[in-house]
Design goal:
By secondary structure, the protein is α+β, with helices and mostly antiparallel strands. It contains 19 helices and 20 strands. Among the domains are: about 140 residues, Neutral Protease, domain 2 (Orthogonal Bundle); about 140 residues, Peptidase M1, leukotriene A4 hydrolase/aminopeptidase C-terminal domain (Serine Threonine Protein Phosphatase 5, Tetratricopeptide repeat), CATH 1.25.40.320.
């Protein structure tokens, strides 16, 4: 596969959803909210090709974890207790597992349960193995005692040297898309939502945090207890353990990070409370109590992960000028699109990410202005067009509704879901006007709150509540969702500031000295526009001129550096390679790794250098990034050939 730009989307135990604390953040205190009508409907069962579980027969409604974190063994061990709803009196509960050592299974009354661990599906090891437990019609709870594998794909174990502090180890999880099964036996499908609680035992002096109600200081004895009262799908289970500090950003938001990173992180995210206010004004109350952000070590494979109550974020957005905080707006927007209204399976990943990318733009527009938001949209459209060209405009993978059966759902996590989804919604907004569109979208989040839905359900709702048959035909909603490529009615952004950037770039290409370019007030986005528009065949002397004028090789901005390094590799501009090597050794964000390693692999000399760097960098990357770069570089074959040469 050619390199792709990656970006990285019930019944409550003992009470109805009406008892949950689902009120706007801006309201004083915390009082029960009325249960949304949609949550009282029977949840539809949608086939999920990536799960062995059969939630149409037995559905997990609550999870209780009691886990011990062992940094020496690199394992989690303990018990998962699963509360089940079994209306038809089924005789089996099927759970997803991958690499788990199952020690024992018991029913709620303590009686040992008969269980079997099935085989892997040939050619699909990413699915793991089904755990089938014999249950009685009246079984309410199933206990599973287990230990994770030291190589569990969801778990990233970092030695002290790989952290900002350099003295204590660090652990974080990444459950999306189907990696929750590598650390928790569960119904690992976004079509099942459950509440959860957890007790986590960690070494003294380390803090544990989860996608739940969190502490703000170390707990004596290293024992942490968590509650998540809102129902969430398994991919939103999250845990991090390390030397972590906290700083408040306001009454309902704050930042967690390693102590050396915390001051910069808190400064960078100072506008987060304004983002929350803007999001609530647009599409209704925030439903999760608090919105906090945890900055992880740089090996985190994504820009951010929308774990409820606690976004996980990459430190590569700490640019020192708040120019990359659109990522925080994106993860905050997931608190509505993705976390509250969720794709029922990964074929409809765009329902999470397309809506969120659109919502992100609206938050950025509210805080920083329309022109700023249009620059972000224009950059997104550039990336989308590049991705469609790389995949092929006729490829089924350029549809919004995908067919990922038989493949790891990570294969669907390209710019298509994010950006084609965004531009579909922009096109709908343009077709009906912002006032009608915003009223519809607010109603959509209310109507499907705490449910998992499909593309077909969304389109049915769209036709019933917003579009007349004539409007639906004019927009081409079926074409947008079910056909490949980019429709010709895409509502493209226009940016006067980018037009000025294009003019400066053209002047430089025609001979104006780099030092004479009008760049003094450029944002990160304008620099990205400038760099992405440069031709691929620039000679080294021209790159050296830009580097002398703007010190691009030493930029502290990861987005600018990554774009610059791509040009340096294409031209063989060796003065940038020391910084490029340091970047690849330090940063594990897949969005950067894939294009850079891909560019290096385009020539035999570049691939040889890339393999030498990757051999040292690979142990510090998360399994998600390793898997992608392994395939890109042919790591297994190449390492065997190198070792026998």
């Amino acid at each position: 596969m050619p390199p792709i730009r990656w970006n990285v989307e019930a019944r409550i135990r003992g009470a109805a959803l009406a008892a949950l604390c689902l009120v706007p953040l801006l309201a004083a205190g915390c009082a029960p909210a009325e249960e949304p009508e949609a949550t009282r409907e029977a949840a539809a069962v949608v086939d999920d090709p990536h799960s062995f579980s059969r939630p149409g027969e037995v559905r997990v409604t609550h999870l209780a974890l009691d886990l011990t974190v062992d940094f020496d063994a690199r394992t989690l061990s303990g018990r998962a207790s699963l509360t089940v709803d079994n209306p038809a009196g089924a005789s089996e509960l099927v759970l997803d597992t991958r690499g788990l050592e199952i020690a024992a299974v018991a029913l709620g009354d303590g009686a040992a349960a008969i269980f079997t661990l099935g085989d892997e599906v040939e050619g699909q090891p990413f699915l793991g193995r089904p755990l089938t437990v014999e249950i009685a019609p009246g079984t309410e709870v199933v206990h599973v005692d287990y230990t994770t594998s030291p190589g569990a794909a969801a778990l990233q174990w970092l030695d002290p040297a790989q952290t900002a502090g350099g003295e204590r180890p660090f652990l974080f999880t990444q459950s999306q898309a189907i990696l929750a099964r590598t650390w928790v036996p569960c119904q690992d499908t976004p079509g099942v939502r459950m509440t959860y609680e957890a007790t986590v035992h960690v070494p003294e002096g380390l803090m544990a945090v989860m996608s739940a109600e969190n502490p703000t200081a170390d707990q004596a004895g290293g024992v942490y207890r968590f509650e998540m009262p809102q129902p969430v799908p398994s991919y939103l289970l999250a845990l991090a353990v390390g030397e972590i500090g906290f700083e408040s950003l306001g009454r309902v938001s704050g930042v967690y990070a390693e102590p050396p990173t915390l001051p910069a992180a808190a400064w960078e995210l100072a506008d987060t409370p304004q983002m929350i206010d803007a999001a609530e004004r647009l599409y209704g109350p925030y439903q999760w109590g608090r919105y906090d952000v945890l900055f992880l070590p740089p090996s985190f494979p994504f820009g951010g992960m929308e774990n409820p109550r606690l976004t996980f974020a990459t430190p590569t957005i700490l640019a020192g000028d708040r120019s990359l905080v659109a990522l925080i707006a994106h993860e905050l927007a997931h608190s509505w699109s993705g976390n509250v209204v969720t794709n029922a399976n990964w074929n409809d990943f765009w329902l999470n990410e397309g809506f969120t990318t659109y919502f992100e733009g609206r938050i950025m527009e509210a805080i920083y202005g329309e022109e700023y938001a249009e620059m972000l949209a224009a950059l997104g459209l550039e990336q989308l067009r590049d991705t469609v060209e790389e995949i092929g405009a006729d490829s089924p993978d350029t549809r919004l509704h995908l067919d990922l059966a038989g493949r790891d759902p990570d294969a669907g996590m390209t710019d298509v879901a994010y950006e084609k989804g965004r531009f579909f919604l922009r096109t709908l907004e343009q077709a009906v006007g912002r006032e009608r569109w915003d009223a519809f979208l607010r109603g959509y989040f209310d109507r499907f709150a705490f449910r998992s839905i499909t593309s077909a359900e969304f389109l049915d709702h769209l036709r019933a509540e917003l579009l007349s048959p004539e409007e639906a035909e004019r927009v081409g909603v079926e074409r947008w969702v079910y056909e490949p490529g980019l429709p010709d009615n895409l509502a493209a952004p226009e940016s006067a500031r980018f037009a000025a950037v294009d003019a400066e770039r053209q002047a430089w290409l025609e001979g104006r000295p780099a030092t004479d370019l009008a760049t003094a007030d450029w944002t990160t986005h304008e620099w990205l526009r400038f760099l992405r528009g440069l031709p691929d065949d620039l000679p080294q002397a021209r790159l050296a001129e830009l580097d002398r004028a703007f010190d691009l090789t030493a930029s502290g901005n990861s987005e600018i550096q990554a774009e610059w390094f791509g040009h340096a590799v294409a031209a063989g501009y060796r003065p940038a390679y020391t910084a490029l090597e340091e970047f690849l050794l330090r940063v594990g964000r897949r969005k950067f790794l894939v294009p850079l390693y891909g560019a290096l692999a385009a020539t035999p000399e570049g691939k040889e250098w890339a393999l030498e760097v990757y051999e040292r960098a690979r142990p510090g990357y998360h399994a998600v990034s390793r898997g992608t770069v392994d395939d890109l570089l042919g790591w297994g074959e190449e390492t065997m050939a190198r070792s026998t040469a």
